[in-house]
């Protein structure tokens, strides 16, 4: 009983539900009013930019909207929970302006799809691709508006294939998403846990759950397959013919293939996180809290890396990541992938980039984009 005013009518279930009905109706009207505004925004964009080059999706604006939602939130719903609701509202509004086709490293049900949904919301057209370079090609050709690819995992390290693909691509990084990777042990609803004979998953996921599997399922055979989503599909297939096969996969795959969770969050490192990048054809304006990614090819001479890094120190620009990949052009030459806080149009960031251009043999700005909000 949370009634502080003794005179008021006591809270009863029917009264509370009436109140919820009335609030829902107001929320619904307001969401539609917002959607009509977004439709007008689309008209303005079309009028300003002409049919061809209209850019409907604005990552910097979306990041600002979500940050503001979190800043002004007073609860009882948590900041993230509230931002997720607005994430989906914006996703629906953008789909009214123009439905976005999002290519991602498939198949359906992968963690990359989970990241795509986290970033764009559910109102997008999903385009699962078989490989990372196919995601890039799909966006380059214009068949998809944006692409989502994994770039690093907190336990497994960088995804070299993604970094290498940036060398020859003209795509820009438009955003980043971080996704906590939670693995679950899944089976078909008709399968009894005691009967399970095989556990399927991607090799990396089996590795990320090794200690848990050793402890609870030491005698069950582990089978590595091409992706977690494929493992979930196989478990669902097996279940239909009464074979007791389990899969290790995430929430999206579980839902997609109608499986049930025998054990949730079975990963050995609970803070197992993967970072994904959004690639597209546009340069994103500053959002106020941004990151920039560069590809820098150093001259093959003593102190070359030192001279690159020194520019960051002097201009007080915060470098958040440095990866080294062998150059394909010269033997023992290296390419550096550098992330730093700031937008390439900021005064300090621009000063660093100018100096790098003088000191390195090649500098490519892969993109400036809002720091992940959710
Ligand atoms: O502000 C815009 O440019 C809009 O199109 C509106 C809106 C929104 O719903 O708030 C929708 C899509 C964009 O990606 C950003 C924001």
Automatic annotation (TrEMBL):
Principal place where this protein is found?
cytoplasm
MF terms from GO for this chain are: prephenate dehydratase activity
Q: Which residues form the Chorismate mutase domain?
A: 7-101
Q: Read off the PROSITE patterns from this record.
A: ACT (PS51671), CHORISMATE_MUT_2 (PS51168), PREPHENATE_DEHYDR_1 (PS00857), PREPHENATE_DEHYDR_2 (PS00858), PREPHENATE_DEHYDR_3 (PS51171)
SUPFAM superfamilies in the cross-refs: ACT-like, Chorismate mutase II, Periplasmic binding protein-like II
Q: Which residues form the ACT domain?
A: 293-370
Q: Where does the Prephenate dehydratase domain start and stop, copy by copy?
A: 101-281
Task: Specify the pathway.
Answer: Amino-acid biosynthesis; L-phenylalanine biosynthesis; phenylpyruvate from prephenate: step 1/1; Metabolic intermediate biosynthesis; prephenate biosynthesis; prephenate from chorismate: step 1/1
Spell out the PANTHER family in the cross-references.
PREPHENATE DEHYDRATASE P PROTEIN, PREPHENATE DEHYDRATASE-RELATED
Q: Which keywords describe this protein according to UniProt?
A: Amino-acid biosynthesis, Aromatic amino acid biosynthesis, Cytoplasm, Isomerase, Lyase, Multifunctional enzyme, Phenylalanine biosynthesis
Which CDD domains does the protein's record reference?
Answer: ACT_CM-PDT, PBP2_PDT_1
Q: Gene encoding this chain?
A: pheA
Q: What is its EC number?
A: 4.2.1.51, 5.4.99.5
Compartments in which it is found? Cytoplasm
Record's protein name:
Bifunctional chorismate mutase/prephenate dehydratase
Catalyzed reaction equations? chorismate = prephenate; prephenate + H(+) = 3-phenylpyruvate + CO2 + H2O
The record describes the protein's role as: Catalyzes the Claisen rearrangement of chorismate to prephenate and the decarboxylation/dehydration of prephenate to phenylpyruvate.
């Amino acid at each position: 009983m949370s009634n502080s005013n003794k005179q008021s009518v006591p809270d009863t279930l029917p009264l509370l539900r009436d109140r919820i009905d009335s609030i829902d109706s107001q929320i619904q009207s307001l969401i539609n009013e917002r959607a009509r505004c977004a439709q007008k925004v689309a008209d303005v964009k079309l009028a300003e930019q002409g049919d061809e080059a209209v850019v409907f999706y604005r990552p910097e604006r979306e990041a600002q909207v979500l940050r503001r939602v979190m800043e002004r939130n007073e609860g009882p719903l948590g900041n993230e929970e509230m931002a997720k609701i607005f994430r989906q509202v914006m996703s629906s509004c953008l789909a009214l302006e123009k439905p976005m086709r999002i290519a991602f490293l498939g198949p359906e049900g992968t963690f990359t799809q989970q990241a795509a949904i986290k970033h764009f919301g559910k109102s997008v057209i999903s385009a699962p691709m078989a490989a990372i370079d196919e995601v890039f090609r799909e966006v380059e050709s214009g068949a998809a508006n944006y692409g989502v690819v994994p770039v690093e995992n907190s336990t497994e390290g960088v995804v070299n294939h993604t970094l290498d693909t940036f060398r020859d691509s003209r795509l820009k990084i438009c955003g980043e998403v971080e996704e906590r990777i939670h693995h679950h042990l899944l089976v078909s609803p008709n399968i009894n846990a005691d009967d399970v004979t095989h556990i399927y998953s991607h090799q990396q996921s089996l590795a990320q759950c090794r200690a848990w599997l050793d402890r609870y399922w030491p005698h069950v055979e582990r089978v590595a397959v091409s992706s977690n989503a494929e493992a979930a599909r196989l478990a669902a297939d097996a279940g239909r013919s009464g074979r007791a096969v389990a899969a290790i996969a995430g929430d999206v795959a579980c839902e997609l293939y109608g499986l049930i969770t025998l054990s949730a969050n079975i990963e050995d490192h609970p803070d197992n996180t993967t970072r994904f990048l959004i690639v597209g054809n546009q340069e994103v304006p500053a959002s106020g809290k941004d990151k920039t990614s560069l590809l820098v090819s150093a001259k093959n001479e003593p102190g070359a890396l030192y001279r690159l890094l020194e520019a960051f120190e002097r201009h007080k620009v915060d470098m958040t990541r440095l990866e080294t990949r062998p150059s394909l052009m010269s033997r023992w030459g290296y390419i550096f992938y550098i992330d730093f806080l700031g937008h390439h149009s900021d005064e300090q960031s621009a000063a660093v980039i100018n100096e790098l251009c003088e000191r390195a043999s090649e500098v490519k700005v892969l993109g400036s984009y809002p720091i992940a909000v959710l």
